[in-house]
């Protein structure tokens, strides 16, 4: 540039303009570090969220996401992808007991269950009657069994037992023993008329397999191959005073022997220890017994003084022994007409039970511990 005097004056250097950044303010991140010059010096554009200036929360979130994306995938051996297990169906998640209970209720509601000609309901007995009796059998009386090998696996047999205890729990415990020791066979007991005349008790007896103590019913059950139980002492045995414990009463006229002879089945003597002491009978209120229509009204150390609490049986230690079978098939069905033979077999069964009772009592050390 020339001045007025012709002297050349140096021109100032041209000023470079900084680049104009367009777009939204928060888009500055996309440019990274941009350099410009202001008055010859370079200007540095610093991003608001450049490296090292991130917020701590954002850093942690980004690090977690990166770690998840870079996590190794472990495959099963063989490279076979296993499908995810299907969710169990509601009925599969139920326990066996719950399924059994639901099935029992369904059968009851729909009427899909079987009752035999005597009124015996096997399903009801298994599901309702036996469980509480089994608790008494195992936990309260702690019953020991002997001679279970004498119980036949198939075919009929007549079980003849002593009777005691003021309340006939011995017949119920014997039924539990037969069922559990034979793998599910039921003892079909023969009961007195009074059992089936008492409300609820009679219905319970019928549905659990008991029937009236008569020759016709006994023979039919034995011919069908059932295990039949009989207690020849009757109420004289179950209601005898405590002073006469384990002394067998009269066995009647041998009606049970006649039924076994006609059906040609063996007779199995059964001896029960421990039932005599559950309700020690000290007396009998005959007036109340006549008013209530009962064979006796017992007085024990705890009943009726303590009311219903006195009706709880004492936790004595029990044992049930099944004796050697006495065969009857060799005599033939006509032998029932021989009174001497019937009397002889009746006395043989009674003596077998009595001797077993004396033998077990001599070995027992404690009423409550055995």
From TrEMBL:
One of its GO terms (molecular function) is acyltransferase activity. Residues 157-275 form the Phospholipid/glycerol acyltransferase domain. One of its GO terms (cellular component) is membrane. InterPro entries: Plipid/glycerol_acylTrfase. The keyword Cell cycle does not apply. Residues 51-69 have a biased composition (Basic and acidic residues). Coiled coil: none annotated. Residues 1-95 are annotated as: Disordered. Keywords: Acyltransferase, Transferase. This is 1-acyl-sn-glycerol-3-phosphate acyltransferase. It comes from Amycolatopsis tolypomycina.
């Amino acid at each position: 540039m020339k001045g007025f005097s012709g002297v050349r004056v140096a021109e100032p250097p041209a000023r470079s303009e900084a680049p104009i950044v367009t777009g939204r303010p928060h888009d500055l991140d996309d440019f990274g570090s941009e350099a410009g010059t202001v008055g010859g010096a370079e200007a540095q554009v610093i991003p608001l969220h450049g490296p090292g200036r991130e917020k701590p929360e954002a850093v942690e979130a980004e690090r977690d996401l990166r770690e998840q994306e870079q996590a190794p995938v472990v495959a099963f051996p063989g490279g076979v992808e296993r499908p995810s297990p299907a969710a169990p169906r509601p009925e599969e998640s139920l326990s066996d007991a719950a399924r059994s209970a639901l099935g029992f209720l369904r059968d009851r509601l729909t009427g899909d269950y079987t009752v035999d000609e005597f009124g015996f309901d096997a399903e009801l007995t298994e599901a309702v009657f036996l469980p509480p009796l089994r608790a008494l059998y195992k936990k309260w009386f702690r019953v020991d069994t002997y001679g279970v090998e004498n119980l036949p696996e198939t075919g009929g047999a007549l079980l003849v037992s002593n009777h005691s205890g003021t309340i006939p729990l011995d017949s119920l415990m014997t039924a539990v023993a037969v069922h559990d020791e034979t793998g599910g066979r039921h003892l079909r007991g023969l009961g007195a008329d009074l059992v089936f005349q008492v409300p609820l008790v009679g219905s319970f007896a019928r549905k659990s397999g008991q029937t009236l103590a008569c020759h016709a019913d006994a023979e039919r059950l034995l011919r069908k191959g059932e295990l039949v139980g009989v207690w020849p002492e009757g109420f004289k045995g179950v209601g005898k005073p405590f002073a006469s414990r384990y002394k067998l009463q009269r066995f009647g006229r041998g009606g049970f022997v006649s039924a076994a002879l006609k059906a040609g089945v063996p007779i199995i003597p059964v001896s029960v220890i421990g039932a005599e002491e559950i309700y020690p009978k000290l007396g009998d209120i005959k007036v109340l017994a006549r008013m209530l229509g009962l064979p006796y009204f017992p007085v024990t150390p705890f009943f009726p003084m303590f009311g219903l609490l006195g009706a709880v049986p004492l936790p004595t230690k029990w044992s049930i022994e099944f004796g050697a079978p006495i065969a009857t098939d060799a005599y033939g069905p006509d032998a029932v007409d021989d009174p001497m033979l019937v009397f002889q077999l009746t006395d043989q069964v009674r003596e077998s039970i009595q001797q077993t009772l004396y033998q077990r009592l001599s070995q027992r050390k404690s009423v409550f511990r055995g």
